[in-house]
TrEMBL record:
Designated name of the protein: Tetratricopeptide repeat protein
Matches recorded under Pfam families: Phosphodiest, TPR_16, TPR_2
PROSITE patterns hit by this protein: TPR
This protein's UniProt keywords: Repeat, TPR repeat
Length: 957
């Protein structure tokens, strides 16, 4: 008898929060989720930082942190660097669950995942996150976006299932806003926003239920973003009413959020019904959303500013065969989802994944196997497919621009304005900043500091870069640099706040005068343009100078320098400021703790805990204070509570180990100390504690830990000495001149600071060896040229991820880092003395003024197009939705930009090679290449690398 088919349904509710769910379940208003929880295992699910949905959902799907999977924000530069597009899965550098399962022959249904556009050619069906976006009135044609469905043959039938907001019945709207009929929609657009979000959620659900019922599937991943959108729009009106919220607005819109959760409970019921009782259901969210006194009153006037409303804990529920009932799990985070799903299918976990399995969810824990990585695993079981995009895949520019509007309206990105190059620079800036925050979240402060130093130098008015850089210097024990950046921030911030306050008053006065004149003339006052509103928001933000963070950083630096009394004065000043919320109280408390002022530290941690009882760092601080005070049992309780919320904190495990050792539980203490070292192998104090605990039973192991601790401490001392003896490496303020004056006009946005070089392109130590670049259009012969240069003895900058196939039987000679050049060209310094293949669209993104040698390979465009089409056909992909003539024009423009870049950056060290001549006269071509490289004697060997059999798509045939 055959085994029943194992199926897993993963349901994503963006921003769902237990703080909203529990009261609704208690009131019987979410019966489906109540049954799922009572019959399964639930948990708080810790998020990652930065708390940005595209990066988080990609971490969920891959089990990896952002610096491994490549998705770093909401938008990215277009491949030609001339504009901005929504983030796409084309930037993802790791396989997702559906790719791994496809290799194993398992079929997936993926609907709406963010980002999943363009739809990947997976083993199963994928509907991208652009498919449901509602556009225009119902009488206007609403074609589905190109490349939003795989297989494409399903596009039209699925498009008919979508719901236009204008087609929603009145009772659907009144379920969210009962007094909707009272609203003047000409003046109040919020009802329209509610309808749009509701319709898009219904479209996702309609498509998902149809596919679950009609397709064969093993794994389904259905993503709903509606709770996040409803919360960003309406959580401010959620009860209890905040004092700054208008009473009528509260009465009109106060029930929207709860209605959204009830709506999702109904959708979940239908998904579970279709999936069947033998399906394992995993419901989760990427983060929460503050529904209470922690709701921010003001949203920062910066990209991704609305993310401040997010809470650090989402929801997790696992229900199915073999799973415990009514169980509460602890210590889970987003990175644990992919390993858990793989374990449900009995598949190995990649050792390069950053998460763990939710092991305690099973009644009988399953065997867990591992492999080094799935990325290098290329074999595919019969009937399956890996389902990855071909490397040449690009997004159509028109659909990119159309898709941007949604995120602009939500406030996640700024209006692009007329200056596209500035928009590109801002986009690269945000991607780099998010990457730095991701490094910091993994305690990789050195990598983060390198990025933040560049960003703060390029954008000195972006004080968040300086604040985060100061935090990195604090973590790296770079106290002199911490003092320098803190003083620079204080001076700059105060001056800019004063300037912004004056300019804001002028702008508001001009607006009032303009309004008065229009009314006197009998005219309607003009509405502010979005750019003007954004400009005023920026001025208000800059004018609100809060010295609390600066006082804290000064206090920390003074404490590190041993200036205790001065430090205490600064810290108390920071404490007393109204803006000193939970996060700042925690930082102040840690500083007091390091100064051994336990009472002051306890006060700060207790304040942070009262503000946010779920704050893991506040609980840990209280545990540390309890341990100092000799209250061992309390220290253990608080440390366990902290770990229940954030399990991957080595300091919490270490604190627990110390407390357990003090209570006379050495075996438990050893396990806790080992767990601390799992998360931070360089934790010297944990090695010392283990050495002490093992000294009587395992002397050899104790000696190893003792030696390791000594080595770590010695390395830190050496690093401090090197910094002290190398003042040229000290941090320098971004600019010697005072901050540039701000401008604000009633109907325009203030200009951004500018710089000659885009952020992220400056190098502290430029390479001195030549960097040889092979460039050209995809399928123009660049791989052939790489083979020729390898024959000449040049080492190739490659990573071996993409192996040879029928299209390139001798190999591709590529490196994954090069594909990310548009937003991160940092790989260039690693290619010094080597040869790297950079396709023509990416060449203009290389940093200028470096020792390049460039070889451009040109090929007849008809041959290039034919070769690309055959390669796409073999891979089952369709390519760009452009006519051959339009595609030819795009390629010609790319080649023109390539030649312009070569003329500006490698005029005396460039060579152009004809693909046709290389095959018709390989010896002459090889001689030219050898002469260019300065190795004429190797010309015969270079000629042998040209394989004439591979000139398969000829224009003369």
């Amino acid at each position: 008898m055959s085994q029943p088919r194992r199926r897993v349904l993963l349901v994503g509710w963006d921003a769902a929060d237990w703080k909203v769910i529990h009261p609704l379940m208690d009131a019987g208003q979410m019966p489906t989720l109540e049954r799922l929880v009572s019959g399964g295992a639930m948990a708080n699910l810790a998020t990652l930082h930065p708390v940005l949905s595209p990066t988080l959902w990609t971490s969920i799907a891959t089990g990896k942190r952002p610096f491994k999977h490549g998705i770093h924000g909401f938008t990215e530069p277009t491949p030609d660097g001339q504009g901005v597009q929504p983030i796409t899965n084309l930037s993802r550098t790791s396989k997702a669950l559906w790719n791994l399962l496809g290799q194993e022959g398992k079929r997936s249904v993926v609907v709406g995942w963010w980002p999943s556009h363009p739809a990947e050619p997976i083993h199963g069906v994928m509907v991208s996150n652009h498919f449901q976006r509602a556009l225009g009135p119902p009488e206007v044609p609403w074609p589905p976006p190109p490349h939003s469905v795989h297989p494409a043959a399903l596009t039209e039938s699925l498009a008919a299932l979508r719901i236009n907001p204008n087609d929603l019945p009145a009772d659907a709207i009144s379920a969210f806003v009962p007094r909707a009929a009272e609203i003047d929609q000409q003046r109040d657009q919020r009802l329209g926003a509610c309808a749009k979000t509701l319709a898009e959620a219904a479209s996702v659900h309609s498509v998902a239920t149809h596919l679950l019922a009609s397709q064969e599937w093993d794994f389904a991943a259905i993503y709903y973003d509606a709770i996040d959108h409803f919360c960003h729009g309406f959580m401010k009106y959620h009860p209890p009413r905040q004092e700054h919220i208008n009473q009528r607005d509260f009465e009109l819109y106060g029930g929207v959020v709860n209605a959204a959760y009830r709506f999702h409970d109904m959708l979940l019921a239908r998904l579970i019904e279709i999936a069947g009782p033998d399906t394992t259901v995993l419901l989760m969210s990427d983060h929460g959303f503050h529904p209470d006194h922690l709701r921010p009153r003001i949203i920062p006037a910066e990209p991704a500013g609305p993310a401040i409303e997010h809470r650090d804990f989402g929801v997790f529920v696992l229900n199915g065969p073999g799973i415990r009932s009514d169980a509460l799990l602890h210590g889970l985070n987003l990175l644990d989802i992919a390993p858990t799903v793989l374990t449900l299918f009995g598949l190995p976990i990649g050792e390069d994944m950053d998460g763990s399995v939710a092991y305690d969810a099973w009644i009988e824990p399953p065997p867990i196997t591992t492999i080094p990585t799935w990325e290098a695993r290329h074999e595919v079981k019969p009937g399956g497919t890996m389902g990855l995009h071909p490397p040449e895949r690009r997004l159509d520019a028109a659909e990119s621009q159309a898709a941007l509007q949604q995120m602009i309206e939500l406030g996640y990105i700024e209006p692009l304005g007329d200056d596209q190059q500035l928009a590109v620079r801002r986009t690269v800036r945000e991607l780099r900043y998010n990457l730095a925050r991701a490094y910091m979240d993994d305690s990789r402060h050195a990598e983060a500091a390198a990025i933040l130093t560049e960003l703060f130098a390029e954008w000195p008015s972006e004080h968040r870069f300086g604040i985060q850089l100061a935090m990195c210097f604090r973590a790296l024990d770079r106290i002199t640099d911490l003092r320098a950046v803190t003083e620079d921030l204080a001076t700059r911030r105060r001056a800019e706040a004063e300037a912004a306050s004056a300019q804001l008053q002028q702008a508001l006065l001009a607006l009032r005068n303009d309004r008065r004149e229009k009314l006197a003339a009998g005219e309607s006052p003009p509405r502010l343009k979005p750019a003007a509103r954004l400009g005023l928001r920026r001025l208000r933000s800059l004018a609100r100078y809060s010295p609390a963070a600066i006082d804290y950083l000064r206090g920390y630096a003074l404490a590190a320098e041993g200036k205790v009394e001065e430090a205490v004065r600064q810290l108390r000043s920071a404490e007393s400021h109204p803006a000193a919320q939970a996060g700042l109280s925690l930082q102040i408390g840690q500083t007091y703790l390091q100064m051994r002022r336990t009472s002051e530290a306890w006060r700060c941690f207790r304040r942070a805990h009262r503000i946010d009882p779920d704050n893991a760092h506040a609980l840990l601080g209280m545990a540390q204070c309890a341990l100092r005070r000799g209250r061992t049992d309390r220290a253990i309780d608080d440390a366990l509570e902290s770990l229940a919320r954030r399990y991957n904190n080595p300091l919490a495990h270490f604190t627990l180990a110390r407390a357990l050792a003090r209570r006379g539980q050495p075996a438990d203490a050893i396990e806790a100390a080992k767990r601390a070292l799992e998360f931070n192998p360089n934790f010297a104090a944990a090695h010392t504690l283990l050495a002490h605990l093992l000294s009587e039973t395992e002397e050899a192991a104790a000696a190893d830990h003792r030696a390791t601790a000594d080595a770590i401490r010695a390395a830190k001392r050496s690093a401090r000495l090197r910094r002290a003896s190398s003042p040229e490496q000290a941090w320098q303020p971004p600019h010697a001149q005072p901050p540039a004056p701000l401008q604000a006009r009633p109907h325009a946005a203030p200009p951004e600071p500018t710089s000659q070089d885009p952020p992220g392109t400056r190098m502290t130590h430029p390479p001195t060896e030549p960097i040889t670049i092979v460039t050209g259009l995809p399928r123009s012969g660049t791989s052939m040229m790489m083979q020729m240069l390898a024959a000449a003895g040049l080492p190739a900058f490659v990573d071996g991820v993409r192996t040879q196939d029928e299209d390139n039987p001798h190999g591709y000679y590529e490196h994954e880092a090069i594909k990310r050049t548009a937003r991160d060209p940092g790989w260039v310094h690693e290619a010094a003395g080597k040869v790297a293949k950079v396709v023509a669209p990416l060449l203009p993104h290389l940093p200028p003024n470096l020792p390049y040698r460039v070889i451009l390979v040109e090929r007849d465009l008809d041959e290039v197009l034919a070769s690309q089409q055959k390669m796409l056909a073999r891979q089952g992909a369709t390519g760009a939705a452009l006519t051959p003539d339009r595609l030819r024009a795009v390629f010609l423009a790319q080649l023109a930009r390539t030649r312009e870049w070569m003329a500006a950056n490698a005029a005396e060290s460039s060579l152009t090679i004809s693909f046709f001549e290389a095959h018709t006269d390989p010896h002459a071509t090889a001689a030219r290449v050898a002469e260019f490289l300065g190795c004429a004697e190797r010309a015969p060997i270079i000629a042998q690398a040209i394989d004439g059999r591979l000139h398969r798509n000829r224009a003369d045939r």
